[in-house]
Amino acid sequence: MTMQTQGIHHITAFVGDVQRNADFYAGILGLRLVKKTINFDAPEVYHLYFGNEQGSPGTIITFFPYSQGRKGRIGGGQVGVTTYAVPVGSMDFWKQRLAAYQIPVTEVSRIGESYLSFADFDGLRIELVEREEGALSTWSFGGVTPEHAIKGFGGAVLYSTNPEKTADTLSNTLGLERITEGDGYIRYRSTGDVGNIIDLKAAPVPHGAGGSGTVHHIAWRAKDDAEQLEWGRRVQSHGYQPTPVQDRQYFNAIYFREEGGILFEIATDPPGFARDEAPDALGQKLMLPAWFEPHRAVIEENLTPFEIREIEVEQG
């Protein structure tokens, strides 16, 4: 039986200043901070999760903000562009909103679709595309209401140092359907209604360098722990060495690096972000796994305070 992922579970990136990160993704893009925790491997660094109201798989972008970190360089072995889907008819709203916040934008086309392309405050490349698929958001913040709000990921653009190998992994390991190609990209589709369109740049891209403004990894969906174990066996049968299962509190994860250099994760949909906070209180408190709780005072002292706030448009 051919296994197929539903698509993107989450995308994780490096950024710099934590307040500027929150201002961009919550204050300007209108996403909800659904979890404020720490990097379990580096507890002096936040791990922030932004998504829809519930933090549903396919909507979640996560960040490691580190103000002293080096600047990265987008290139091969990375997600080059993170794509968000917005409702059909809402692009003019986003053009006006981004212009009001003085975010430079470029209108581009790719494989028959029009995109609004821009960068966040750290240089991470983002684009918006209108799509019929995907439920409307139920979250409103800072002037972004459901009829215009980001639904979740439209997908991602992958930059590979070896696109032929990456293409093989997308098709034969992850089960994505290769549907078309054009404009220098190969397009794949998964079975989900968000996070479902992956464009692979067809030409090799020179290696990037990790750091602020770059994506660390892209995670694909597994419906539960049992399916994740099947994915682990499948990945191994295709010549990769996946990690043991890692407990990330809100999902379980395995990782492997495909031959084009991109770090792939396979993450479970459950248990989700409401396992340790009420749904209406998500993201309001620093949440720590049990093994870090005895060190809460020291951890909090080492983290820079920030707030989720509406961002005023400068008049002038």
From TrEMBL:
Keywords: Dioxygenase, Oxidoreductase. PROSITE patterns: VOC (PS51819). The keyword Oxidoreductase applies. This is Ring-cleaving dioxygenase. It comes from the Bacteria. Pfam families: Glyoxalase. Residues 7-131, 152-269 form the VOC domain. GO terms for molecular function: dioxygenase activity. The keyword Oxidoreductase applies. Transmembrane segments: none annotated. It comes from Paenibacillus graminis.
